[in-house]
Specification:
globular; alpha/beta; Carbamate kinase; 7-stranded mixed β-sheet; 6 helices
């Protein structure tokens, strides 16, 4: 069983929590995992550069993927026991925890729109579906309230705009881990 753990770039503001989470992952506390890094300050720099230079959404998307790769390297510097991975679905499964660098997506993928509507949140749920992961965890710097659907979370800005569509194609459990609580994301409206 594989778990996808997306670690938001905003956790840079809480280095102790981030370090403890990475150590727990490396210790195998959560089993076999693939870590999806958020872009953090690197992605923010891409947004600023796009505003200044005026390059298109596709170029911004590719640069944001590079930002996630830089964050993957940063996470591995914090916790060196994590293995780097560009294609976790094609690599041997000897490592318990891999940090995914999405560089392979730079060439484009028909299921992934190249815009700011797709961030590491949607890429995490996309990867969870590709790997048939049992669980996809989004580690955030803010708590989510229980009982929210993906569309409600997107409207509130807790996940990106494309997340509801990606979530609809994933059959596993989705959780959001905030600083003080862990909640499961509702998959359908209550009857």
């Amino acid at each position: 069983m594989i778990t996808i753990v997306k670690i938001g770039g905003s956790l840079a503001a809480d280095p102790e929590r981030r370090r403890a989470l990475l150590a727990a992952l490396a210790d195998g506390v959560h089993g076999r995992c693939v870590v999806v890094p958020g872009g953090g300050a690197f992605a923010d720099a891409v947004r600023d550069a796009q505003t200044r230079a005026g390059f298109d959404e596709s170029e911004a998307h590719r640069r944001a993927l590079d930002a996630m790769g830089r964050m993957a390297d940063a996470l591995r510097r914090i916790e060196p026991r994590l293995a780097r991975s560009t294609e976790p679905w094609n690599e041997p499964s000897d490592a318990v925890v891999r940090v995914w660098d999405p560089a392979v997506l730079r060439a484009g993928h028909p299921a992934i729109p190249e815009s700011w509507d797709v961030t590491s949140d949607s890429l995490a749920i996309w990867l969870a579906a590709q790997l048939r992961a049992a669980r996809c965890i989004l580690v955030k710097s803010v708590d989510a309230r229980p009982g929210h659907l993906p569309a409600t979370l997107a409207a509130a800005g807790l996940v990106d705009a494309a997340f509801p569509a990606f979530a609809s194609r994933y059959s596993g459990v989705i959780e959001i881990w905030g600083p003080t609580g862990k909640v499961a994301v509702e998959r359908r409206a209550a009857a």
